[in-house]
Amino acid sequence: xxxxxxxxxxxxxxxxxxxxxxxxxxxxxxxxxxxxxxxxxxxxxxxxxxxxxxxxxxxxxxxxxxxxxxxxxxxxxxxxxxxxxxxxxxxxxxxxxxxxxxxxxxxxxxxxxxxxxxxxxxxxxxxxxxxxxxxxxxxxxxxxxxxxxxxxxxxxxxxxxxxxxxxxxxxxxxxxxxxxxxxxxxxxxxxxxxxxxxxxxxxxxxxxxxxxxxxxxxxxxxxxxxxxxxxxxxxxxxxxxxxxxxxxxxxxxxxxxxxxxxxxxxxxxxxxxxxxxxxxxxxxxxxxxxxxxxxxxxxxxxxxxxxxxxxxx
Length: 313
Ligand code: FAD
Description:
single chain; about 325 residues; alpha/beta; TIM Barrel; 8-stranded parallel beta barrel; binds flavin-adenine dinucleotide
């Protein structure tokens, strides 16, 4: 497609045309709750694997509630796929010694990337956080603790609409700086829908002299009710236009999926035009929407799917 032809189209149609660099993508999964969700998680992993993501990450349940399941999932990805897994880890409800043991176990199992987070209080997303006196107090301390154990690649979280506990964007940027000084090499953003706000946020980070990659966290969500509940608790604003798109679709999951994919594709395409080339997708353990959005961005299969093996005991 010539530049003249493509300029007549919108960002989605223009995205991924030849000549543009291939974006780098990463995918986030949650550990499965039982055999059925394990099956659907692995279907999603197998479908997305050939897209050749930079890494895939596996979350750590509130209060460390998924410690074993996160570990098992990350190690299985390492052993049975071509993917590079990253393990999320939080400071919640654990002593430093306990967290250090988890870190050492990951290193011994061959995991080389940790997403270091403070975590939220168990059972009350958005509630007040009280660190354990004998534990890591925040993600800055956790990052330093991880680096003291082994030379992991460490990613940390950032909040385009500021963290709900933070007094200001400047404070959040100071915290990010501290996490990078402690050894983090990449930040992954919370999900957001205000692109202009995101661009201003990243601009402020760059003006503060922070140069590490900041990956926009993209949530292609098809359950608007679930999204609204979660967003309300973690301080993410849901714009009126998004609510409007989903209005009246409660009983129509297929259309909700199409809407969700088109919204996320447009967000990514606009960010790509602004020069962003890394995207982190909150997959919610489903491949279809993320796969479609990657296609729009010009991300194509580069690897064969690896053969499934028996689930680890
Ligand atoms: P921190 O960066 O530690 O910041 C929390 C507060 O601590 C700051 O507001 C600040 O007041 C204080 N602080 C931190 N460092 C310093 C410092 N150096 N000096 C002074 N004050 C400081 N939660 C889970 O439970 N499991 C997950 O798997 C998970 N995955 C996530 C993935 C991403 C990409 C993101 C963005 C969030 C994720 N979360 C997860 C949620 C996260 O745990 C919560 O948002 C939590 O409230 C904050 O975590 P944080 O690592 O950003 O905190």
